[in-house]
Design a protein that fits this description.
single chain, alpha/beta, Rossmann fold, six-stranded mixed β-sheet, 10 helices, globular
Length: about 240
């Protein structure tokens, strides 16, 4: 059967050993609400896709994969922090649909903050990056959704090829600014892995869910330890099951 033409749900089975029952239950608990995690006292947080602010930025340029990948890399780090509720991108997509909010409306930061309050997130992370040759400068801001006050700001720089490793200190500092313990050192993955992951996310964002699931399965078949792909695969299958 060709990729992208699977019958709904029946044949979309994750690779053996890739999805663990505990992780599935943890995700479903997060998707259903943030109440239990919020009880731990840490504020729920939303991480938006980063903005490509390079002077010559154009859709499809070689660094465009960093928009989603930097956000997902940070999300993966924050998910390691015990008791920290993190609203994931598929949950955001569902909420946008429920609230009938068009993606174009979210160019306004105030609109994003309003959505954060609807979600129940007290904190929101905005990030951006600038590519200069083979170097990339990354910056983040942590915002209080109730007051729009900047609670934390940081930046990092490094090569495009190693940017996921170069931003690890920034991710740790942000986790601590949210009141959590610094996450451990994550496993490192090649830029090609992140690019393949970004391709899958782009398919999902375009509504091509079957193709996105297949792309994630292919990625996990190559590297079963790439946790962001595992997490998104569970989220997409759950989303498809509810259609």
């Amino acid at each position: 059967m060709k990729a992208g033409h699977h019958p709904p749900h029946a044949s979309l089975v994750p690779p053996a050993g890739a999805l663990h029952r505990a992780r599935l239950l943890a995700f479903v608990g997060l998707a259903l609400g943030l109440g239990a995690a919020a009880a731990a006292g840490l504020p729920a947080v939303v991480v938006w896709d980063f903005d490509n602010q390079s002077a010559a930025a154009a859709p499809g340029d070689r660094s465009d994969f960093l928009r989603r990948s930097l956000s997902e890399n940070l999300t993966a780090a924050l998910l390691q922090v015990p008791g920290l509720p993190v609203v994931e991108r598929q949950r955001l997509k569902d909420l946008l649909a429920e609230q009938k909010v068009a993606a174009s409306e979210l160019a306004d930061e105030d609109a994003r903050l309003r959505l954060g309050r609807i979600v129940g997130a007290a904190r929101m992370v905005f990030g951006g990056y600038i590519v200069l040759g083979d170097e990339v400068q990354v910056h983040v801001r942590l915002i209080d959704t109730a007051t729009s006050r900047v609670l934390f700001a940081d930046e990092a720089s490094g090569s495009v090829a190693a940017v996921m490793q170069d931003v690890e200190p920034l991710n740790r500092h942000l986790a601590q600014a949210l009141g959590g313990a610094a996450p451990g050192t994550p496993r490192r993955f090649a830029p090609a892995t992140w690019q393949a992951y970004d391709h899958a996310l782009a398919l999902a964002d375009a509504g091509r869910l079957d193709a996105a699931v297949q792309a994630l399965q292919d990625l996990l078949a190559q590297d079963k330890d790439f946790a962001p792909a595992e997490r998104q695969l569970v989220a997409l299958l759950d989303r498809m099951a509810r259609r």
